[in-house]
Amino acid sequence: MTTVQETAAVRYGIWVLCPVLGAAVVWGLKLAAVWITTLRWFPFQGVFELVTDIPEPWVTIAALAVGALGGGVLALLWAAEMMSVEVSHDRVRLKKNDKIFDFGRNQIESVFTEGKQLVLLSPSGAELARESSDLSRARLEQAFTGQGYRWLDADPFADDYRMWVEHAPDLPADVNALFTARRKAISKYEHEEAAELAREIRKRGVCVKDEKKRQYYRCER
């Protein structure tokens, strides 16, 4: 079995780097608070005025704590977006956001990447998975071809996609409703919600992908 995942330096380093950077940024804003209060056009003036009123060392301690906490939240979100891929001769497992997507060898006809997305196709051309990650394309290709899977250079169905519009006539009402909900999630940068809605759409026999916040789809053959 071959496992492709972020390096240990990335997986563990973010828990140190993000809080440190967060603390540094907020501490820097604390140092600039007096100057910022002279810029009446700058937003959140009340917050910076409050900061200048807090005595030392409490203001520094609070700034470092708030920054580190914010950095910790960022690290948590970053870690949730990381994906690991386990490729063996008889199956493929994708692990992301505490979810496991498991596919048998006979379910997978071919594999490719599109941008940062890893896509698994079934023998019928259906998309079994389309998941985003920062994993190296070269490492993924090596892992899949090393276990005998067919690797493609591009999406063989790229020309079949069309842009989704409200109440698309060739889609059932429930699928259009999912596209509408997904459009709202994309506009609010709710990436995991958008990904979950895409999975629900795929379950209904429709493939979906995004380009510049526009949704494109194709119906499975």
TrEMBL record:
Keywords attached to this Swiss-Prot or TrEMBL record, sorted alphabetically, are:
Membrane, Transmembrane, Transmembrane helix
The Cysteinyl-tRNA ligase anticodon binding domain covers which part of the protein?
A: 169-218
Domain of life here? Answer: Bacteria
Instruction: Point out the signal peptide segment.
Output: none
YqeB PH domain: from which residue to which, for each copy?
2-151
Pfam families (UniProt xref)? bPH_10, CysS_C
Q: Which residues cross the membrane?
A: 12-38, 58-79
Q: What is this protein called?
A: Uncharacterized protein
* Organism this protein belongs to: Lentzea roselyniae
